[in-house]
Every structure is written in structure tokens, then in C-alpha cells.
Amino acid sequence: MPRFTLSKHAESEMIRRQIPRAWVESVLDSPEQRYPEPDGTDILQSRFVAENGRMYLLRVILAPDKDPPVVVTLYRTSKIEKYWRPE
User: Fold this and answer.
1) Are 47 and 33 in contact (CB under 8 A)?
2) What angle do CA 27, 37, 35 make, to 5 degrees?
3) At CA 37, angle to CA 25 and CA 55, rounded to 5?
4) CB atoms within 10 A of CB 21
């Protein structure tokens, strides 16, 4: 059984936004931050340095109540301070 599945939307966004699958798997395996949202999804996020040398935050929205869990959508942003939650 797979650890997770990608929704069609998440899969197309990963391709469109050129987000490496290895980044997605890394966030799902060991996110730097994880917190629940009121709608029942979980936000998992980690920071990565891209090929251009810039730091990005990869945010993965996960439906954890599915079996296996489903990645609803994902995106990367350079606005880390906007989304990062202080410890």
C-alpha cells in the first residue's frame, strides 16, 4: 500500500510548478512543521534550497483521514516568513 497518493490537481501543480517529487516525499516523511487546519486537512511544510540558490518553503496540504492519505495540493513560495510558525 502506498504511503500517500497525489490528487490529480496536486500532480498537475507539481508538474506545472516544477516541484521535484523528492521534495514532496521529503516533506511527507519528515516535515519541519505540521499543523492541522479547521477543514480537517494538515499543512506540512519544509524549507529547501532550489537549483537557483534561493530558499523556498514547500507547503503540502494533506487529507490525512483518507487511506492512504491524499495530497490535495502543494506549492512552493519564497515568502517563508508569511507561513512559518515560530516554535
Assistant:
1) no
2) 40
3) 45
4) 11
